Amino acid sequence: MSGSMDIAEIERLLYDEADCLDRADLDAWIELYTDDGTYWMPVMPDQESPVDHISLFYDDRVLMEVRRRNMNHPRSPSKEYPIRCSHIIANVRVTEEAADACTVTSNFHCLMFYNDKQTMFGGRYTHELVRQQDRLMIRHKRVDLINCDAALNSLIIYL
Amino acid sequence: MHYSNEQIAELVQPTRLHKNVYIDPDVFDLEMQRIWGNAWIYIGHDSQVANAGDYITLNYGKMPVVMVRDRNEQVHVLHNRCGHKGAKVVDQPCGRVGAFRCCYHGWTFKLDGTLAGVPHLSGYEGTGFDKSDPQYSMQKITSASHRGFVFATLNPNPPDLRTWMGGAADVMDNLCDRAPEGEIEAAGGVLRYEHECNWKLFLENLNDTMHPMIVHQSVVDSAVDYIKTLPEDSPRRDEAEIIPPFGASYEVFEATGITGFKYGHHYDGGKTSIHSNYSVDPDYEKAMIDAYGPERTREILTFNTHNTLYYPSLTIKSAIQNIRVVRPVAVDRTIIETWSFRLKGAPESMLRRTLLYSRLINANGSMVGPDDLTAYFRVQQGLQSSGSDWVEMHRNFGRDEDLGDRLKNTGTSDLDMRTQYAAWKHYMMEVA
Ligand code: FES
Ligand SMILES: [Fe+2]
């Protein structure tokens, strides 16, 4: 691989992010995102816009900050159940690369245990990464669930 | 168990409901027959089938149906069942066709459901089979629409749709009048959300104004706490107008008022609601004034309701321009669909706000909907208990104000429950 992006470093970031979500630690998770970072989970395959079409999630830093506080709030009925996840990421590939930024796609499976039920999620991640002050960070993450247009139950945490 | 009329009447008492209303599969089956079989059930908006041949498919109760526009602009609701051996004819959520063709033996049907073609017809000669006999067509379901909202009913003698809606039609009119062109269209897709609870728990929560400050305290606190950390000159965010009102006080909700109608419909708000302090986009306001003049514009934009229920299948938010549709699956399983609408002639920013609201409040990944759903789920679990057979609904009982065509009470009253269960009983009692 050419350029300043090292695949091992990229994978390390993806794994670190997955680890934060496995532990439902949004305080650590949010630190992996740039100030203009966004997280998007479309409701349609090939969905083009996060704002001209409904989505399952579309958070910028402001909503991430609210969600982080909400996750730790003692009085949210849906957060009374522990959330335990196990993410597996594979097929990591750099699809675009510039001097200090790149786009990376990967496949993921996430096994989630929540409210006495185990659920399997799976799909594709697209990460836009950028180097800021020597640190590789996430500027955008798109999560395409293979069943994004199914009637899903509540999604309590980012996948 | 089999329920006689007397036993059904026993389940619904003036200030309490029997738990079987929510947890007995036999009650659910009866509801599907008697309520979903007799009320006007929301199918879709006619903008979803804008051109000839456009169709959408959905379940009406447990039955597959298709809504389609024919070449004469006529919208039909058809049983999605082949006239031959019964295969489901159309299986995409939406699309456009010249005619329907069954995947099994290739029978074809016109856009109004009429049987058009049968392959190798000679085998039917002299058998008594008559291709022109309507029993072999895709069967029509009685349908009617108001401002583009298409409803269908299996009731052979239904009340006229507009009469059935009563005063609740004002809110649907208001939703459409908020468009400078007086028309709306479905836009931005649908969100489908599985609810592991009885369908009525979702409806009863709509105008349950005693819950937001409890159930939604966490998201309101989180938003307000975060806003406090921002510099004063931070750019205005719609989120900051949308989330905090969910934590409004009892007094605020009390003042909104609830209005109930025959057949179970009701709304909360009118003058004030949790949406009434939203800022108005100046471009939108201008488009409205150009279309309606200042007086009428003010009238339209100050009619502020929160949730309006067209019992049992449709709930709309006129001030937000989104709707939620109830599709019951089983006694403890319901699919809720959220649809958003474009106000024709309004700037696109209005649709974006609608979609933001749907995502922020109603989506599976939102910080509001999942907390509501957890509460319904807990009711569904708790009612399995033999600790009591009854659910109470006394709030402001005996103080509903009867205005002839409608009942009114304060915003925190159980008038919405009483209204729904009067209709429930009306539909559920078997007519001799
Ligand atoms: S079942 Fe449809 S053509 Fe035979
Ligand atoms: Fe709620």
What this model shows, in words?
The complex is a heterodimer of chains A (159) and B (432). Chain A is an alpha+beta fold. Chain A has one domain (7-145): Roll (Nuclear Transport Factor 2, Chain: A), CATH 3.10.450. Chain A contains three helices and six strands, in the order H-H-E-E-H-E-E-E-E. Chain A has helices spanning 7-22, 26-30, 61-71, and strands at 33-42, 55-60, 83-97, 101-114, 117-132, 135-145. Chain A has a six-stranded mixed sheet with strand order 2-1-6-5-4-3. The radius of gyration of chain A is 15 Å and the shape is globular. Chain A starts with 6 loop residues before the first helix and ends in a 14-residue tail after the last strand. The mean pLDDT of chain A is 96. Chain B is an alpha+beta fold and 432 residues long. Chain B has two domains: 41-153, Rieske [2Fe-2S] iron-sulphur domain (Rieske Iron-sulfur Protein, 3-layer Sandwich), CATH 2.102.10.10; 167-428, Naphthalene 1,2-dioxygenase Alpha Subunit, Chain A, domain 1, CATH 3.90.380. Helix content of chain B is 31%, strand content 25%. Chain B contains 15 helices and 22 strands. Chain B has helices at residues 5-11, 20-23, 25-34, 161-165, 169-177, 199-206, 212-215, 217-228, 239-242, 250-256, 282-292, 294-301, 348-362, 369-382, 415-428, and strands at 12-13, 16-18, 41-45, 54-60, 63-69, 75-79, 94-96, 100-101, 108-109, 115-117, 140-146, 149-153, 184-195, 258-260, 266-270, 304-310, 314-317, 322-330, 333-343, 390-392, 401-402, 407-409. Chain B has a nine-stranded antiparallel sheet, sandwiched between helices. In chain B, strand 8 (100-101) and strand 9 form a beta hairpin. The two termini of chain B are 20 Å apart. The mean pLDDT of chain B is 96. The structure holds FE2/S2 (inorganic) cluster (FES) and fe (ii) ion.
